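Input chain follows. Return structure tokens only.
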Amino acid sequence: MMTQPQDNEELKHRKSAADNKSYELKTKNGLNEKVEKVSATNSKIIGLVFVSLLLDLLAFTMILPLLPSLMDYYDKEEGKGNGLYATLLKAVQGFQRWTGAPDRFASVLFGGALGSMYSFLQFLTSPIVGSLSDAYGRKPMLLICLTGIALSHALWGYARTFSIFVLARFIGGLSKANVSLSMAVVTDASNTKTRARGMALIGLAFSIGFMAGPLAGAWFAKTGNISSGGWGERPAFYALALALANIILVTFYIPETLKKDKRAPLSFTLSKAVDFVSPWHLMKFTAVKNLSKHQNKVLSKLGVIYLLYLFIYSGLEFTITFLTHHTFNYTAMQQGKMFLVIGLIMAVLQGGAARRLGTRGAERAARGALVLTPPSFICVALAAVNQPPLFAPICWLWIGLVLFALSTAFAVSCMTSMAAAQAPEEARGAVLGTLRSLGALARGLGPLVASSVYWSSGAAITYTYGSVVLIIPALMLIRLKT
């Protein structure tokens, strides 16, 4: 009889322990369900951003194969006058005579000049828009950019005069910060394990866009007035339709990813305005607040690497079309097939291997990509030699192009992932906007410098010099400690 109270006490203790265990199990299951729900939502957001970027890039790249025909149209309409086209044409012809470029490349140089203007405008706006998104949220700024892009396509559709066409390109360049904003959204919706996968999806959108967009633009132009010497309103309105669809997608399906309590206060001063437009300050990331000393050091070095790499890379990439036309007599269709093969290789890698990379994997892939870039252009340099060793020039060209595609598939997306990993939540827009701005500056200057060297010194020297300089950012990235 004396043991009954002890038995009751033991039963109570066991029941209490069982209840606690049950509570802990329910809590753990609830947390797991919450984590899984958040993870599923974030994966959906990243997928929607991929679709948004794809729509944007399909619309953006439609104009690329049409630029020579557009320039022919404006040359016929305004080439002998005193307007904007005639003024810019004289400048391009002066550059052409100075470098020794043949007359048949005047339209390519003209397109390159417009592309440089487009890149310089991105250089000006990307860090500013990124900082605004840190203060007011990603979605409002993204919608403003997409509205500007839609307006630029609409103006192109009515660009009977060259001035309106340039205005359309001007507005489009100012609005192109949507790419860095999309990267910021992906970073918001990912963690250290999934960030590289999200950036790889962005790279995949670029690959698909640059494969399908130019083909679509050329196809629509066949049935539009550009085929009979017009300004191509049909491709422009198809691009406008994609841009409007993108606005609807972002408005109704992509939520705000930066919570109000994570936003940074915004204050513009004259000194801060300089931080946004000075290349030196951009490389130092001085416009970005709330960075630790280590984060600022890593980002500053990464900014220099990114700028130098893209400066040389974009110039050599731009002049490949000169080489294939001038040395191998490639037609426009052969050029298209060449870039299609490059795009397919990149798409397969970005849709497969690059998506499976973690943070450390992205760092290793970025280093490998930059190491692979100099050999790719050395091979292209050998293709420009009359009697290269071992292989015929065309074999060296394609070896170089395959290595080029392999390195390009990982370089920018993985370096962007590295930058995002160093950005605090309240400054991601500013960090990625600054990085994008440095890339736009490089893409604006690179083709102009490379074209000058190409026509004054020759293809082999241009690619050899470029390959040697590209060793510098590769070594810098290998030595960078994150």
